[in-house]
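Quick start: what a row looks like.
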Amino acid sequence: MTTEERRRARRLAHLGLWSAYPARTRPTAGRWIPATVSLILAVGVWWAVTGAGLIEPLYLPGPGDVVARMVSQAQLGIAWRYLSPTLLAALLGVAFAVVVAIPLGIVITHSRLLAAVMEPVVAITQTVPLVATAPLLVLWIGYGTIPIAVLCAIVAFFPMVTTTIVGFRSLDMRVVENALLDGANSWKRLAHIEGPMAAPAVLAGVRGGVVLAMTGAVVGELVMGGAGLGTLLTLSREAADTAGVFAVVAWISLSAMALYGLVQLLERAAVARLQGETT
């Protein structure tokens, strides 16, 4: 690498555009500034387009109309009444997925035979569309929160099991071999060596699964019925209430972002605890 190329690489790294060291691209204290500026610009363009009357409100309501609808829904209690069933189904689905996906991923990484059998099956499960799976769940389980939660678990299952597999297969085998030489049995290695080392990847899968579970809950309510945001979205769509549709989409996005942030905080605390970075 020439001197000029090194200077160019340093400039790109200082600007945050590209770094040759992925470990140095972790979010810093000001990580929300670019996202906030981008959001403000997007809303500004949205407001300018709708304010100038370039697009009819039937097709694209103004941001002020959407915010006003959300405030009205919050004041009347409509937002929480429809949001709580969706959150319940999503969180229940995440719990189902965690109980199945993480142990399955651990077993797959320790069994060559099971890996050969299960990995293709896990991949195939993701090829079936949710709208095709939902009617089957209605036939097998019925209506209510449980089938929607199962649909959420199916959606969240794949990232959890794949990141678990990647995390355990990326372990430093020298550390595991040292534990074997010290006489640690399988459970001790899993609890004190393998689990803490793989925790960042495993918990990242849980974080992604939480967001996907919200999508699964809404899709389940759209197809199977229910009392959550999917139902409110259907009612707004049938009433040609575009502002209401945008408001529901905003509630879904805000809820998913809140869950993502909460799980991210828990993830950092758990990783620090498991890896001995706190006392």
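That is the whole record. Residues 76-274 form a domain with the MetI-like fold fold (CATH 1.10.3720.10). Residues 25 and 31 are 10 Å apart (CA to CA).
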